[in-house]
Design goal:
The complex is a heterodimer of chains A (92) and B (584). Chain A has one domain. Helices cover 79% and strands 4% of the residues of chain A. Chain A contains two helices and one strand. Chain A has helices spanning 2-63, 66-76, and one strand at residues 84-87. Chain B has three domains: 39-61 and 153-213 and 433-458, Penicillin-binding protein 2a (Domain 2), CATH 3.90.1310.10; 70-145, Alpha-Beta Complex (Penicillin-binding protein 2a (Domain 2)), CATH 3.90.1310.10; 219-426 and 465-567, DD-peptidase/beta-lactamase superfamily (Beta-lactamase, 3-Layer(aba) Sandwich). Chain B has 584 residues and is α+β, with helices and mostly antiparallel strands. Chain B has 19 helices and 22 strands. Classes of the chains: A mainly alpha (92), B alpha+beta (584). At the A-B interface, helix 1 and strand 1 of A face strand 3, helix 9 and strand 22 of B. Strand 1 of chain A pairs antiparallel with strand 22 (580-583) of chain B, so a sheet runs across the interface.
């Protein structure tokens, strides 16, 4: 009788430990899954930001190219090219 | 239990044991002996290998302005088995792809699961195609090379092909460096091939993005060089032309233009001859500029001084050939000329007499020392060595011809570099088109690493080619060329310009004879003469409105020089109390 109750206690302990480990594992797994999903989202976001950055870099370079600057300066701002530079000697 | 049932239970146990041994044996075979085979099969089902494409490196000018970039573009492909009505499909996408319906229909009428329709689409076109939502039409993201400044420095940068492989210019020369290395990543997935979020992610082969290149080109100087060269060529109704702007002290190439230009974004629309960087790939006879090197040799060998007087007749008979001047001499003009006057007035007979005194072996020695007949150490593809025959292959008249730049052929870069030697007190610099190679040790997906960079420092060649004194003497004579001689159109007051004009007849096909009425007009010079900061060489091929270096190339030199002086903030030497004015 004594042996049977000891065996019962042992199995209850074993099953409790197994259930606890399973629950803890499950909780960690759930947390890891959400973290992994976040990492995935961040990778996608970084990638899209990198692409956006490239797009703006290209747009900026394209719009500030010298031929465009010259065109706007002459046609829109009515600027005229410099014709003379005067060098003035200043005695120290 | 009876003995009979005992025996039966023994048989049963034996049977179970036999089964167990068989199972264990089979398991041993599968798990241990065939382990590698089944592991591979399992991996094939559960793991997904992703190729990680590296991003192509960028090309910048010396101030960090991007000259070549990459952007993401969509490429359209068709899955023919999924297309329901091929006629309708072709008709719907043809106007967007700007291709005939028949061409598309031919492409999709195959039994393959993948057919390219058009790669690297423009953004509006890809949006229009996506909006159609056609079954059997799909897209892949690819990287597209973009040159935002269009034709700026086109011949230096070159271009890439459809698979982003460099095909010319720096894109070709540094293709491996710009490309980087592609990698592989293994992801855990289910048997259907879908990724398991919680699964492992292993980088099998790390992908490295391509490195960035910082050139010595200056965006502004390149821009004005191209603009003034184009305007000058169009004004003179010439065929083509080249211009190089260098820093004679460092060998940095600040601008390098080869007209006609092309847009590397759509290089296929231009003839292949436009793609070449003629500054390094094409040769021509240098003409009178080479008198500078003949006289430099004679001064260095102490055969003459710049003030030495020589009797220079109008013509010279040598080996059954008559050497004459380009311009007729004025009536009553003295036959006696100083060495300085010979260069200033660009006298062919005078330079021939100097070369005869110098001797063919020494003339050859100086021409090779100035870098003619061999390639320069520039990082540009397709460079040719030019043509300079050794003295034992010269005919009787060659010594005279070579003294004024005929009978040998050079590239624009070689000529600019030889002039740099004069400007740099007789020391030759190595030309530099690359300032820095920046290799990003950046894994294209995971994190950032350290940047590795290779600096290209300015380098001098071994020792002086001519002494400092000879270089100063030659510079002084070259100043007289622009102050009082043939190169007055290259003046940039208040600065002193040291320069030389050249008008050379163009050699015939295969280098045999000369073409009639076809010339190459050049001007090469540097300023300020006392402390040179920029060197410019302009070469115009087959001008028709005028043929002379003084009227065709010198004005282009002057315009580029004036803009450079203003941009680089080069100040004139203080000459109190005069107020100096630079007319642009």
């Amino acid at each position: 009788m004594k042996a049977t109750s000891r065996r019962k206690g042992f199995f209850i302990l074993l099953f409790s430990a197994m259930i606890t480990f399973s629950v803890v594992g499950l909780i960690f797994n759930i947390k890891t899954a959400s973290l992994n999903a976040k990492i995935q989202q961040m990778i996608i976001k970084t990638d899209s930001l990198r692409k956006e950055n490239k797009h703006y870099e290209l747009l900026y370079t394209h719009q500030t190219r010298l031929s465009e600057v010259k065109r706007i300066a002459i046609n829109t701002l009515n600027m005229t090219p410099i014709t003379h530079i005067q060098y003035v000697h200043i005695t120290p | 239990m009876t003995s009979h049932s005992k025996r039966r239970s023994k048989y049963l146990i034996f049977l179970f044991l036999l089964c167990a041994i068989t199972f264990l044996g089979r398991l041993f075979y599968l798990q241990i002996i065939k382990h590698a085979f089944f592991k591979h099969k399992s991996d094939m089902q559960l793991q997904k290998i992703i190729n990680i494409s590296p991003s192509r490196g960028r090309i910048f000018d010396r101030n960090g302005t991007p000259l070549a970039l990459s952007k993401t573009a969509l490429s359209a492909y068709a899955i023919p088995p999924q297309i329901q009505n091929k006629w309708e499909f072709a008709a719907a996408i043809a106007p967007i792809l700007k291709l005939p319906s028949k061409t598309i229909l031919k492409k999709i009428s195959v039994e393959r699961p993948f057919v390219w329709l058009k790669r690297k689409l423009d953004t509006p076109d890809s949006h229009k195609l996506q909006a159609l939502k056609l079954s059997g039409l799909s897209f892949i993201e690819e990287e597209k090379r973009v040159y935002p400044h269009e034709d700026l420095a086109c011949s230096v940068l070159g271009f890439v092909g459809i698979d982003n492989q460099g095909l010319s210019g720096l894109e070709y020369q540094f293709n491996q460096f710009l490309t980087g290395s592609s990698g592989k990543m293994i992801l855990d997935g289910d048997p259907m091939g879908f990724r398991i979020i919680t699964g492992s992610r292993t980088v099998k082969l790390t992908s490295y993005n391509g490195g960035d290149i910082f050139t010595s080109i200056d965006e502004y100087i390149q821009f004005i060089t191209q603009q003034f060269l184009e305007e000058g060529i169009q004004k003179m109704k010439a065929k083509s032309g080249q211009a190089i702007v260098m820093n004679p002290k460092t060998g940095d190439i600040l601008g390098m233009a080869s007209y006609p230009y092309f847009n590397p974004n759509m290089y296929w629309k231009y003839p292949p001859s436009y793609w070449k960087n003629k500054c390094v790939t094409d040769v021509f006879e240098p003409g009178s500029i080479s008198k500078v090197f003949t006289i430099a040799g004679a001064l260095e060998e102490n055969i003459f001084k710049s003030s030495s007087t020589i009797k220079v007749p109008e013509t010279l008979q040598i080996a059954n050939h008559t050497i004459s001047e380009a311009h007729k001499r004025k009536e009553g003009e003295s036959e006696y000329k100083t060495v300085q006057e010979i260069l200033k007035e660009s006298l062919n007979v005078g330079s021939s007499l100097i070369a005869i005194e110098l001797g063919k072996h020494k003339l050859y020695k100086y021409l090779t020392a100035f870098g003619f007949g061999k390639t320069t150490p520039i990082d540009l593809p397709g460079e040719v060595a030019g043509l300079l025959r050794p003295p034992h292959l010269w005919s009787g008249v060659d010594i005279a011809m070579m003294s004024f730049g005929q009978g040998f052929a050079v590239t624009s870069l070689q000529l600019a570099l030889a002039l740099c030697t004069i400007a740099n007190d007789g020391e030759m610099v190595k030309p530099r088109i690359i300032r820095e190679l920046q290799e990003p040790r950046t894994k294209s997906i995971i994190g950032q690493g350290l940047d590795m960079s290779i600096q290209y420092r300015p380098k001098l060649s071994k020792g002086h080619i001519i002494s400092r004194e000879t270089a100063k003497d030659i510079t002084h004579i070259m100043v007289s060329v622009t102050e009082e001689g043939t190169g007055f159109r290259a003046k940039v007051p208040p600065f002193k310009v040291a320069g030389k004009t050249a008008t050379a007849q163009k050699a015939g096909a295969g280098g045999i004879g000369y073409l009639k009425d076809t010339y190459i007009a050049s001007f090469g010079g540097f300023l300020p003469a006392n402390n040179p900061e920029i060197l410019i060489l302009v070469t115009v091929d087959t001008p028709t409105e005028s043929i002379w270096g003084s009227t065709v190339a010198a004005p282009i030199f002057q315009r580029i020089a004036k803009a450079c002086v203003d941009y680089l903030n080069i100040l004139p030497p203080p000459t109190l109390p005069v107020l100096d004015t630079l007319a642009i």
